[in-house]
Amino acid sequence: MSEEFNDLSSFEMSMVIRQLERSDIDKILQMQKVCFQGMEPWEESQLLSHLKIFPEGQFVAELDGEIIGSCSSLIVNFDEYDDRHTWDDISAEGYITNHNPEGFNLYGIEVMVHPEYRRMKVGQRLYDARKELAHRLNLKSIIIGGRIPNYHVYAHEMTAREYVAAVSKHKIYDPVLTFQILNDFTLMRVNPNYLPDDKASRKYATLMEWNNIDYKATTKRHFKTSYPVRICVVQYLMRKISSFEEMAHQCEYFVDVASDASSDFVVFPEIFTTQLMSFLDEPSPSRAVRKMTEYTPQYIELFTNLAVRYNVNIIGGSHFVEEEDEEIYNIAYLFRRDGSIEKQYKIHITPNERKWWGISAGDSVRVFDTDCGKIAIQICYDIEFPELARIATDMGANIIFTPFCTEDRQGYLRVRYCAQARAVENQIYTVISGTVGNLPQTENMDIQYAQSAIFAPSDFEFARDGIVGETNANLETVLIGDVDLEILRRQRQDGTVKQLKDRRHDVYHVEYKKD
């Protein structure tokens, strides 16, 4: 054998099926234009959402470093979806924000292989990767809504159901359906209007299922009849104090109350820590605010310890924080009961904050995982901008907490009415927590007006008038109320109205420009 054939590396090829990475996205977008000509391609934001929500379910096929195929999926409880669901229904308009880690079924929403590589069993490898994932996650089945791209050739002579029957009996070849049948998928039904832009399939899709014969039923996952979350809302009295420790004792008292009531969350108001200004002896508001930021480490340490010690998740109101850029931000912190911490910057700064304190704006909408589902925090003025709540809901939030600080009834009602509107528009729970009392010695913190509350969507299964509970106005007190995430889930699917499902994406959309 000649020497040149002793080294076989120059003849080797590398075919790899691996998890999608962010650096692959541009290549996927380009490949999709080739694979599905005339159909609306992915948006980058959708693929980023897949990576964020369920990275294990997104695969690519790579040949010698080139992306030649991909597939996307999510986990659902398929019984929760209507028999005639569309691709938009099952994929949350392509963002998979409806992904349910506790679900029973892996749902495939797309498979594609570059036309130049369609005789290399790339699709087979991608399907095998899905099956391996279903085995590993102990999922009951894989369900797909498959295209029938050759149907347009026969549409003038047979119905979609007749076409599918002919393909199933191998009388007609369809590149997608035939392949799925050979991969042990069985036909469940034929869905019309599945993909409106799939002209080749005449909008039809075959609902197919592969059953995992190794699936083991467990008691770990089950359908819940109820998923209650208890919330303690603090209506905090602003009063003159003489030290940080005095404020800390006041905060611990409320956390203790929340813990005794077995609360999952306790919520403090916006910038209630400006109470510290009452002993700083600084008449200039801008200088007083910078002095107050020096207490940030003590504030964070206090609430971290309280969350762990009292076993309750704390929305620590909000606090003015000076960061490395020497700008001051209004930041709300989530102190989880496991000791971890998250933060949400206030995005819309009021004219008052800008004029008196020079507060800078944040620019990111965050949604946080907790042991009671996904939540968001939108500080005071932010709840008055409906786009933010819609973005948070699309990211999976079930509850939006709004710490607020308003000085008069008009300002308070703006917060209240908008929080109630967000609950209806997005089929979520909203919570508002405000300050009362006054700090007569502190410039720009003279008076406070609040009536804290918990709001629900307005429908039969929720609290009357959409109000879970509310405090009396302008008294220091707490409100403790239960919200049910299972009722929320059911109402999003089968409520009297379905604001999330009935949105007209063909007419309008909300675009979030941050990654």
UniProtKB/TrEMBL annotation:
Coiled coil: none
Membrane-spanning parts: none
EC number(s) from the headed UniProt entry: 2.3.1.-
Domain of life from the UniProt record: Bacteria
MF terms in GO: acyltransferase activity
N-acetyltransferase domain ranges (all copies): 15-213
Acyltransferase among keywords: yes
Keyword list, A-Z: Acyltransferase, Transferase
Protein family: Belongs to the carbon-nitrogen hydrolase superfamily. NIT1/NIT2 family.
The protein's name: GNAT family N-acetyltransferase
